[in-house]
Q: What sequence folds into this?
């Protein structure tokens, strides 16, 4: 695969998995023993099924979840993207009752690609700002 293929892979994850909520696409886009490191609980996911469950939980709480890939770069077997997600808080999430408010969060993902699929991801999200939007913590 080329670095352009890696960039397209990152865009497909955003569009197909997160924006469309297509958890079946995870099987095509990620290796079976995929690992994700992130600030969300659990802080480390192992395997496609755990990642699918995370996607489902976000979509249950934020059914209109939609994000954009704001920047994407790739080199070697690594692809990085900066993204912005927006959604309306319609269901319980991390103990926060639905507010009906629109929330936004930004983040960056570095992913290692193996044989055309994502093998490992490191996610850095503005969880603090997101929890403030949900009313889980006092504003800074």
A:
């Amino acid at each position: 695969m080329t670095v352009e293929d890696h960039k397209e892979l990152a865009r497909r994850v955003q569009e197909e998995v997160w924006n469309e909520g297509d958890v079946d696409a995870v099987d095509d886009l990620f290796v079976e023993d995929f690992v994700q490191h992130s600030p969300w609980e659990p802080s480390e996911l192992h395997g496609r099924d755990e990642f699918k469950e995370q996607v489902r939980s976000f979509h249950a709480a934020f059914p209109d979840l939609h994000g954009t890939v704001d920047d994407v770069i790739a080199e070697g077997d690594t692809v990085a993207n900066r993204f912005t997600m927006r959604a309306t808080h319609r269901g319980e999430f991390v103990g926060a009752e639905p507010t009906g408010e629109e929330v936004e969060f930004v983040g960056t993902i570095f992913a290692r690609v193996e044989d055309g699929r994502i093998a490992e991801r490191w996610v850095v999200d503005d969880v603090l700002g997101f929890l403030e939007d949900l009313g889980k913590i006092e504003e800074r």
